[in-house]
Amino acid sequence: MHKLFRILLLSMVAFSSIFLATGCSAENGKAAQETANSNKFPAFQTVDVAGNTVTQDIFKGKKITVVNIWGTFCPPCIEEMPELGRWAREMPQDAQIIGIVCDASGPSDKETAAAAVRILKDANVGFVNILPDDKVLEFLSNIEAVPTTIFVDSNGNIIGEKVIGAEVAKYKEQVKRYLK
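== Thiol-disulfide isomerase or thioredoxin ==
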């Protein structure tokens, strides 16, 4: 029995490692599709998890915004949150992090917002996390897995390369490179 338990435990650890390295599949299962305007983040007007209005103006005044697309169902997303919270508090003035709760069905999804608030509180995250409106939901349909992190300049242009998986060191490299 002890040997069976050990094998099961090792299997779970291996499975978790794969999840952490690659991220969770997007809930809707859609394959990535290139769009004609994939280099621009869509204009939007939605709310954050606290119900405050947020628009694409959130990008203005920052040279770079790290956009972390995550889901309340995704263990790697949740596990990287404390590190993202610490990093957000240490970022230079011309950079910021925002999150998009990808499994929210829209700005009025109270249940997913409540789950996100619990996760963010437990992780000591203070940066803005939005619930997607229709335009952001359409944009998210092109995301293969979560977490996926993209980088946006002050004009809403997507810059650099997206990072799929919980790879905070890679996020930091891109920000450092861009701010040089």
